[in-house]
Design a protein that fits this description.
Elements: H1 3-31, H2 45-48, H3 51-82, H4 84-114, H5 165-168
């Protein structure tokens, strides 16, 4: 078994794994079961602003993601069937084509998500202080959690994020 054969099998396995992942994402997006998360789906500022925008973007992109999964699976199968350097060319070409398709349908999903109206969050966390405290300026204190008038913001990374312009003056 030559080095090209071993590489062909490894590339085919990776291709089939990507095809399975993209198929699962496409089916979940099409059915509306893909929820906002950190790793998969169409992720951009417009899609992550609400659950509805994320759902719309992934429903729009899902058919293209399924097509990309099929292209990748066919490329991996051709890689195994043809073998050699040409098999690798088919697999790599299919992967590139799939990434282009996913990029195009993701941009369509982002465009669709941008047309979703922004949810009014005036009664929720979008107004006032970030941690649910009052909007009064925090007293001058060295404790970074005092920005919001609370005992803790939950993370040192949030230090200074809750200050408003009056507190900065």
């Amino acid at each position: 078994m030559g080095i090209v054969s071993v590489v062909s099998v490894v590339v085919a396995i990776i291709g089939f794994a990507l095809a399975a992942l993209w198929c699962a994402v496409g089916v979940a997006g099409l059915s509306g079961r893909l929820k906002r998360n950190k790793w998969i789906g169409v992720r951009a500022d417009d899609t992550m602003r609400s659950a509805k925008a994320f759902e719309v973007a992934n429903r729009v992109a899902a058919p293209g993601v399924l097509i990309a999964a099929a292209i990748t699976a066919v490329g991996a199968a051709l890689n195994l069937a043809v073998g050699g350097v040409w098999g690798l060319v088919f697999a790599i070409g299919a992967a590139i084509a799939s990434l282009l398709v996913i990029g195009m349908v993701s941009s369509l999903g982002i465009r669709a998500a941008s047309s979703v109206p922004v949810e009014d969050d005036s009664a929720g966390c979008g107004s006032g202080c970030c941690s649910g405290g009052d909007d009064e300026p925090a007293a001058h204190n060295t404790d970074p959690a005092q920005d919001c008038g609370q005992s803790s913001c939950g993370s040192c990374a949030l230090s200074g994020l809750c200050t408003n312009e009056a507190a900065q003056a």
